Amino acid sequence: MSRANGAAPGRSSRIILGSIDSTNDEARRRAIAGEAGPLWIVARRQSKARGRQGAPWATEKGNLAATLLLPWRGTLAEAARLGFPAALAVADLLGIFAPKQKIAVKWPNDVLLADRKASGILLENFGAGPDGAFQVAIGIGVNLSHHPGRQGGRWQPTSIKAETGSAPDFETALDVLSGRLGHWLNVLEDQGFAAIRKEWLARADRLGKEIEARLPKRTLSGRFADLDDNGALVLEAEDGTHRIAAGEIYWEEG
Q1: Are the C-beta atoms of 167 and 145 separated by less than 8 Å?
Q2: Strands 13-17 and 39-43, how do they pair?
Q3: Rg of the chain, C-alpha, whole Å
Q4: b/e map of 130-161 (b: 16 or more CB within 10 Å)?
Q5: Is the per-residue pLDDT at 53 higher than 70?
Q6: CATH 3.30.930.10: which residues of the chain?
Q7: What is the pLDDT of residues 155-192, one digit of tens each?
Q8: Could you write out the DSSP letters of every residue in 42-110?
Q9: Helix (H) or strand (E) holding 23
Q10: Which pTM was predicted?
């Protein structure tokens, strides 16, 4: 099963911009213009970035916003699982710069630092290029030096500086992120999703415990039992086993 094509993502070209609307939007523009990647598009500030379901994700100077534009020769279903190696890369970055803090991954592609949200990951597919490969954007935002104020959601925002007292240098953090994502994409290429799944489960918060899965038309409660081969969450509920491909999960404190 062929996947990424071209240079190793960790060593691919990069463009660092001072300010932009969104690194994913810039990746889209470059894909439409025929640029294939792999290419890192990085900004010190974003004015119109967004997360999943269109939620705003502001990036002020001092934080990290980066998108890897990646040619993908696998299926779209396989491309949809790229959030898992991206989450592992972010977890590695947080582990380096906040080694004394709890770090966990939360399905489907969030990363928690001290039980708070310090990162956002957004996957987008821009369609097939002239060579037939899908042009996929892996957008990653990491709160290095600051974070928004308290919000209404279950997971409040935080930053590396808020949890450790100091923020890593922007370009140092970029080097770590690009290197670790390159590593995990190489693992995916060489060993398949099973290896990514194993590493992700080893860091998964609430594995084996009770959670609530909020879906578009209903809410399910049960035990977070597993992650299946397609990246779906396996929930064991009173009425049977459910495989959840998309949704949000929550749990009580403690």
Answers
A1: yes
A2: parallel
A3: 18
A4: eeebbbbbbbbbbbbbbbeeeeeeeeebbbbb
A5: no
A6: 9-203
A7: 789 999 999 999 999 999 999 999 999 999 999 999 99
A8: EES-BSS-B-GGG-B--B-BTBEEEEEEEEE-S-HHHHGGGHHHHHHHHHHHHHHHSTTS-EEEETTTE
A9: helix 23-32
A10: 0.91
Give the pLDDT band of residue 1 (cuts 50, 70, 90).
very low
Q: How much is the pLDDT for 37?
A: 84
Which parts of 76-211 fold into alpha helices (H)?
76-79, 83-97, 160-164, 170-191, 193-203
Alpha carbon distance 155, 178 (integer Å):
26
CB-count exposure of residue 164 (10 Å: 0-12, 13-18, 19+): middle
| Domain 9-203, second-level architecture | 2-Layer Sandwich (3.30)
CATH for 210-250, options being 2.30.30.100, 3.90.780.10, 3.10.100.10, 3.40.50.150 = 2.30.30.100
CATH 2.30.30.100 residue ranges for the chain: 210-250
Of 200, 197, 17, residue with least CA distance to 91: 200
CA distance 111 to 35: 30
